[in-house]
Design a protein that fits this description.
Residues 42-138 form the Peptidase S74 domain. This is Peptidase S74 domain-containing protein. It holds the Pfam family Peptidase_S74. It is a single chain. By secondary structure, the chain is mainly α. It is 38% helix and 8% strand. The strands form 2 sheets. The chain has a two-stranded antiparallel ribbon. Strand 3 (101-103) and strand 4 (109-111) form a beta hairpin. The protein is elongated, with a radius of gyration of 21 Å.
Length: 144
């Protein structure tokens, strides 16, 4: 049984999996609120040259996070939000995870924030492994 909110939802199918920037989506769906679930092709059958991510923790630790405001008046064509933001600087990310940064035709850099998720997952696993090692040492010291 669907509720009233579900009945008001409109589904837009762009016909294929492809990369869209927000301006392209806005041109496709004018005057609508857009809520996106983003799925990336992640099936192992799509992939080759698979290798574990190494040293994620050091890369993550080298990144800084910031609060900032977009220069909305200087870049009106980007239709940036006027709200205060939280994020990273693309140049910083590019130094340690170049795959997560794209440079557009104007030379401006953009971060693929969804690509940071598996990096953070690996860093958490690294941290957990270190925590387990420390816990073993503590237990050994207690038993002496």
């Amino acid at each position: 049984m669907s509720n009233e909110k579900d009945q008001d939802k409109k589904e837009y199918n762009f016909g294929e999996i492809k990369e869209f920037n927000l301006q392209e989506i806005e041109e496709e769906v004018l005057n609508e609120s857009i809520y996106l679930d983003v799925f990336a092709g992640s099936d192992v059958r799509f992939k080759e040259n698979i290798a574990p991510l190494k040293d994620a923790m050091n890369g993550v630790l080298s990144l800084n996070t910031y609060t900032y405001d977009y220069k909305t008046e200087e870049f009106p064509e980007n239709d940036f939000s006027a709200a205060n933001q939280i994020g990273v600087m693309a140049q910083d990310v590019e130094r340690v995870f170049p795959q997560a940064v794209k440079t557009d035709s104007k030379g401006m850099k953009h971060v693929n924030y969804s690509m940071l998720t598996p990096i953070l997952l690996e860093a958490v696993k690294d941290l957990h492994e270190k925590l387990e090692d420390q816990q073993k040492i503590i237990e050994e010291l207690k038993n002496k």
